[in-house]
Amino acid sequence: MALHKLQVDDFIDDSYKLIAIHCRIEDYRLAYLLNKQLDLKLKRKEKDLDFKYLESSYSIFEWNNETEYIMWNLISNVCKREEDSLSSSGTLFTESEKVLKTFNLISEYQKVDYFIKISDEIQNVNEKLILNKLQAIPQIITSYTVDPLKIKSKDHLIF
């Protein structure tokens, strides 16, 4: 009797494009500029992406363009959280020092501030045109495409 195995990877469909953005502005300002420049309608989702038992959370903006069958997502790659530092006991005075910890959604790209994930079923998105429009925004330092197949932590982009 022949055995048939189904691999989980057989059902994963990587039909999305990923664009990395380097800029130092707040997420809501970037979403506004993207809406204006690319003619999008990105809105912040009610719940952020949370990982490692609420250790880090990342803002996410989304727009489902139903006429062109394209889902647009703007995801923050950086989460900065202020935590109490560990101090040794036995001192006369207890001072609580705060330490700023930085977490990244995609750890391979620690310098990237935001990602744009474009999920298109028909494959009709012109990446070069989008990159040219992104470079026209003065607040964006640089932007470039990223191959999703080369990312080790691509599971973080499933939402």
Concise description?
This protein has helices at 27-38, 127-135; strands spanning 16-22, 43-44, 49-51, 56-58, 60-65, 70-76, 78-84, 98-104, 114-120, 142-146.
Describe the structure.
It comes from Winogradskyella bathintestinalis. This is IPExxxVDY family protein. The protein is mainly β and 159 residues long. The chain has a single domain (15-84, 97-157), classed as TBP-like. It contains two helices and ten strands, in the order βαββββββββαβ. It has helices at residues 27-38, 127-135; strands at 16-22, 43-44, 49-51, 56-58, 60-65, 70-76, 78-84, 98-104, 114-120, 142-146. The strands form three sheets. A six-stranded antiparallel sheet has the order 2-5-6-9-1-10, with helices on one face. The longest helix is centred in the N-terminal third of the chain and has 12 residues, at 27-38. The chain starts with 15 loop residues before the first strand and ends in a 13-residue tail after the last strand. The model has no long low-confidence stretch (mean pLDDT 84).
Write the layout of secondary structure elements.
Layout: E1 16-22, H1 27-38, E2 43-44, E3 49-51, E4 56-58, E5 60-65, E6 70-76, E7 78-84, E8 98-104, E9 114-120, H2 127-135, E10 142-146
Antiparallel strand pairs: 1-9, 1-10, 2-5, 3-4, 5-6, 6-9, 7-8
Query: Roughly how many Å apart are the termini?
Result: 39 Å
Tally the helices: 2
Q: How many domains would you count in the coordinates? A: 1
CATH topology: TBP-like
